[in-house]
Specification:
209 residues, alpha/beta, 7 helices, 15% strand
Length: 209
């Protein structure tokens, strides 16, 4: 699949690039995508939630009233889960939500996500560029020139570039990552995938390993 290369002003440069068939031309695997996105979201969870059980509640353990003859249910302690301020039954405890996925499956998931973007014509290839300074206005002008102001965009760079990354950080619908940090969730979460000529090469090399 051929894609026209545009510059940061949104104008065609006359050049065209071929999206690698080995990456963008695979048959998408929805289950692999599901597992990879599930893992990504699980890894975002801190797992620090905690509620107190009855043995952790501060309070008296004396019997509230006599066992029989009151007409009410038997109650042993004010710390019972049945009372306000009592312990919680089967409450959340600190835990690690992460789980393991095989490298081949994760690779398939990412290629599947990229293939969906290619099928939807949601990929824009930019010529390699850089900003002279860190200014949010620079990145605003970029997405505006591409007519993507109101869309979620994901720009993939071949390597870390602070001028571009920091210029995009204050824009809610824009995200910038390196080819090495590409993940299935971010690809699918973006309306448009912005790639530079060199990031395409980096992706092809990464998936060839």
């Amino acid at each position: 699949m051929e894609v026209k290369v545009v510059n940061i002003s949104g104008k065609e440069t006359g050049a065209k690039v071929q999206l690698p068939e080995s990456v963008f031309g695979v048959t998408p695997n929805d289950h692999a995508i599901y597992l990879d996105v599930k893992q990504y979201l699980a890894n975002q969870r801190q797992g620090t939630h905690k509620s107190k059980q009855r043995n952790e509640i501060a309070g008296s353990t004396r019997k509230l009233y006599k066992q029989k003859g009151t007409g009410g249910a038997r109650a042993g302690s004010i710390k019972s889960p049945l009372f306000n301020g009592g312990g919680r039954v089967f409450g959340p405890q600190p835990r690690d939500y992460s789980f393991k996925l095989n490298k081949k499956l994760k690779s398939l998931a990412r290629k599947s996500a990229l293939a969906y973007k290619a099928q939807d014509n949601s990929i824009v290839v930019l010529e390699d560029f850089n900003f002279d300074s860190i200014k949010t206005k620079n990145y605003v002008n970029l997405v505006s020139a591409l007519n993507l102001t109101n869309e979620k965009t994901l720009l993939v760079l071949p390597e870390q570039n602070n001028n571009i990354y920091l210029s995009s950080r204050n824009i809610q619908k824009a995200k910038v990552i390196t080819a090495g940090d590409l993940n299935t969730y971010d690809v699918l979460n973006a309306s448009k995938l912005l790639l530079t000529a060199n990031s395409l090469k980096s992706l092809e090399e990464a998936f060839a390993k």
